[in-house]
């Protein structure tokens, strides 16, 4: 493993080895902290290999490699994982950091709908607003957590769900307080309008439901005792759980909870009027039986939320399938032959798969 952190225009490379000692105990050791002024894949590969050789380790015993999902590390043709295999003249299976991949599933699934992007933008604005000293001094709800571009857990959605009443109450107090600074009052008015929209609270409920399924594997994957086989099975189980959400009954249960919860935050802001749709002039003489780039009018609040619910789940499932796909499936098939709890333990047919991957 070779995590890297930028500092002063350089890349700090921490080289970590995971190995089995003579007593068959799995251990991890930080063996080197190196610095590189260049961060291209070729330079990083040469640096890591030279450091391993400097401390007397034979690269012939390198069995696998693990980095994050940055292109410079994971690139299929020019990434460090590919160049290292070319340098060693053999296949060295590359395993993307599962935690990083799990976070990116949500980060990349969110832009699938503008409504979701707006939700996260409001969350960021809410965090920044409550960081103001004058606001933080009077806020009594749970502490909000900053959103990171490459890392997301269910913490913020949980806090918003639990503290929405406190947040709304405080924003209204600031809005009506003539002693507050004008810019603070204006900002509180805008945020209050955004978070009291019915769609905001529904998305908070929805994201809490989805992320609550991803948080347990996210935590378990960080444990020192978690091996690769267990990690793959955790992700596969999480994927099955997310897929099971995609049904009418699970949506109806979520909708009932949403309608019950929002009754405690009254009055809610009225949904903004939508622009009236019109038939495009060049289509007036035609019968249009496919989409023209917008949703039909008059669907109703529940139907629109249902469309958002199913499309979000499809995006999350698609991202998980793409990021933990065929390569990891083949790898776990091979690893299961070495796991005593697996039904394929010591299966010679599966051993052949493992042999092909290590050639």
Quick synopsis:
This is DUF4371 domain-containing protein. The protein has 359 residues and is mainly alpha-helical.
What does this structure look like?
The protein contains 14 helices and 5 strands. It is mainly alpha-helical. It has 3 domains: 4-96; 101-271 and 298-324, no CATH class; 326-359. The strands form 2 sheets. A 3-stranded antiparallel β-sheet has the order 1-2-3, with helices on one face. Strand 2 (10-20) and strand 3 (26-36) form a beta hairpin. The two termini are 21 Å apart. Residues 352-359 have low confidence and may be disordered.
Give me some keywords for this one.
single chain, 359 residues, mainly alpha, 3 domains, three-stranded antiparallel beta sheet, two-stranded parallel ribbon, disordered C terminus, DUF4371 domain-containing protein, RNaseH-like_sf, AtLOH3-like
